[in-house]
Specification:
Blueprint: E1 8-14, E2 20-25, H1 28-41, H2 47-56, E3 61-68, H3 74-84, H4 128-135, H5 139-147, E4 154-156, E5 159-161, H6 164-173
Length: about 170
């Protein structure tokens, strides 16, 4: 794996509707940042996600790393989550996934019942306060180390978040 590569599957999750947008990338941190940037500029590739962002606002969304996996299995794992959560018909994905629908027109049901997505506590991104309590480092120190690039973090605008995998990395380092 090259430096800076963190291949995996992620979800842009709307807390208001309980619906996800599922994606995968060889660097989930960089890719999720580009999603937020595009959404803030009003130019996201998923019209359904863009509409929800405008309707509910940025604070209604969380970005969750669903799993890290080898690059060779990204498409398979992304398809698994799209199918499991029906993110095409009952979510914000604009296509049925990387392993389905190439050139096909897929009909969607006209009415759907929205249900909340249960992703579990381990999948939720941690705030600086939560992260600092877990690793027993003062929040000001966490901000400083993150800004200096000494600890990995996810930057969403001016906000800093941490995945549970990052907690394990920090515990090994400090």
């Amino acid at each position: 794996m090259a430096l800076g590569e963190h291949p995996g599957v992620y979800a842009v999750f709307c807390k208001t509707t309980g619906l996800p947008y599922i994606g995968s990338s060889v660097n989930v941190y960089a890719r999720t940042f580009t999603h937020v940037t595009a959404l803030r500029r009003g130019r996201h590739e998923s019209h359904k996600l863009m509409h929800a962002w405008k309707t509910y606002g940025e604070d209604a969304f969380d970005i969750v790393i669903l799993e890290f996996c080898p690059k060779e299995t990204l498409a398979e794992r992304e398809q698994h989550y799209i199918d499991a959560w029906d993110a095409f018909n009952n979510g914000y994905n604009g296509d049925p996934g990387p392993l389905k629908g190439a050139g096909r027109v897929i009909s969607r049901p006209r009415s759907t019942r929205f249900e909340r997505l249960d992703i579990g506590d381990k999948q939720k991104l941690l705030t600086v306060k939560e992260f600092s309590q877990i690793v027993d480092i003062a929040p000001k120190t966490v901000y400083r180390l993150a800004s200096e690039g000494k600890i990995p973090c996810i930057k969403i605008g001016r906000n800093i978040r941490f995945s549970h995998d990052m907690v394990d990395q920090i515990r090994e380092t400090f």
